[in-house]
Each structure stands twice: as structure tokens, then as C-alpha cells.
Amino acid sequence: MQYVKIHSIDIYHPTKVVDNTYFINHFQQREKDITRFLDHMGRNERYIIDNSDENSLTMAIEAAKRVLTKAKMSGKDIDLIMFSSQIPEYTFPTNATYLHDAIGAGSQTILLDSNANCAGMTVAVDYTSRYMLTSKDIKTALIVGSDYNSIISDPEDEITFSNYGDAAAAVILEKTDVETGFIDSIYFTDSINKDKILYPAKGLSNVLQNKEPGKYIKWLPFDGNIALPPTYEMIQKILERNNLQASDISCYCFSQFSLANILKIQEKFDIHDKQIVYVGDRFGYTGTSSPFLALHEAINRGTVKRGDYILFWTIGSGYQLVSMLFKY
Q1: Per-residue pLDDT tens for 212-221?
Q2: 72: left (phi over 0), alpha (psi -120 to 50) or beta
Q3: From residue 317, how far is each of 54, 115, 163, 251, 258 by CA, in Å?
Q4: Does residue 163 have a pLDDT over 80?
Q5: How many whole angstroms separate alpha carbon 203 and alpha carbon 74?
Q6: pTM passes above 0.90
Q7: Among candidate residues 108, 16, 15, the one with its CA nearest the CA of residue 62
């Protein structure tokens, strides 16, 4: 029997660090006090692209090169490349095509771009793992998640402008005969908020026909707490059907969107502080890559070692919740 494990993970972020002071002053000039908001979200610093040379694709390429170096692999070793982004640099050709070229991958390599919004990289790892388990030809896969969030964040909107950061994460999945790696995943989808977070705000066709402005995200208020009851249910379900307790999980790699929500989940399941890795204070909210930035940090800290259970949870616009269970 074959399994799919996480072989290696690495990340990339821009060099410029912007702390809360800048954003607090920025919105004070607009007669808004965002101090409580930043505390609620758990922000302190974030990395922001501040030049015309970097974007979602360049960050992805750098993260891909780093993880290949760490894994002591070359592009020729990769059988599938999956690029996840909600802010792709190109709609065609696939951004994965540029990754393929940058790492010198072979002619057998499958290329695919995916977009499940902020849940995207988790979904991409889930789908790729399942595909690898059914395909005899795919032995290794490179999944890269990268969002250039700051470029579409409205300077007049505190929820996006002060909240987001820019970063990429890259994971290499590998088939193995050892009983480890991908175990299970579970989804919950409700389209009730489909019109709350939009980009482009009026749709691509209207922007291209010059009918509507469309540079920034449209973000309308909504009750984020509605995601918590289904989150509790799906985490409980994925644990129960794999005969695990919350205490059996060494590391919870959650969406870094809101510290407040993470703390509520932690309280609900009585999760110990050492099992939670939060990096949203240092990276801001990086969208698709955020749970994997947490995993990278957990591995570097020694919080996670081979054989440990990891539980991912993330949320995408719309909204779609995803929980995924791995044995590292």
C-alpha cells in the first residue's frame, strides 16, 4: 500500500516589514481608530511587497527553489506542479508553466493552477494527495501557494489594508511505503457570503469593458462567527472518524485570518497553547499560504516531528471551510 507524505516545506516573503504603527497612524488621519481591530485579528507586523519586480508568481518561484534545495531535489524530480493563488499574475498560460520553466522540470510534469481563495493551498494539497494515491505515475508533487494581497487592498478600508501581508509557501509531496502522510479531509460549504468579498468588485468583464473601477477588493461587513459552529462540528468529525482526540494532535495549523477565532476553537477543544502555532502577528494574513506558514514555523520550532499528527483548518471566501489531517 502507498501513502503520500510531506517531504519538505519552505517559504518566501518580501523583505519590507510594516508594523501596526504605520496603519494606526494611517487610519487616524481618516478619523478611524483600528487599535482594537488589530488586537482582535492578532496583528503586529507583516511583510509587504514595495517594488515593481515582485508579485505572486515571483514569490512562488523563490519558494519553489528554496524547497527543492532543502529537499535536495531538482525540477526533473517533480511529476506534478500545482500553483494556488487568488491573485495570479497570469490567467494564461498557467502560472505553473512559469514555475516549470524556473525550476527546470521535465516534459512528463503535469501543470495546474488552482484557486479556492484563502483555502486554496490546503485544498491543493488535499486534491494532489488524493490524485497521487490513485496514479502510479505521480511520485512527487510541488504545491506552491502565493498571494500578493497588498496590491489589491484598499487604503481606505482598514479590514484589508491593515490586515494583509504578502508571502508564499511551497510543499513537496512524495509517495512512500511507510504508513504516514495524508489521512483525511472534510469540507463545509455555504454560499451565503458570496457577495461580501469580491475581486474584481463588479466582475472581470465589467472592469475590462471600462464600465466599473476594479483595483481593490470589495469587502462588506459580515458575521464571521457563523463559521464557528460548522468548524467545531467538522473538526470533531474528522477526529472521531480517525479515532483521535484533540490532545493527540501535535500541531494545529489554522488559518491565520483571525486570532480571536483561533482562540475560540482552542477553548472549544481544550487545546494546549503548545499545540497552536500562530504566525499572523508576524506575517499578517497571507491568504492561501497561511496554514503552511504556520506548519513551517512549527517544524522550525521543533513543535512537529516525524510521526506527529497535524490538523489543518482554513476558510475561503463564500464561504468554504476545509479541515485536513496529516501524519507528518
Answers
A1: 778 999 998 8
A2: left
A3: 25, 11, 15, 24, 14
A4: yes
A5: 39
A6: yes
A7: 15
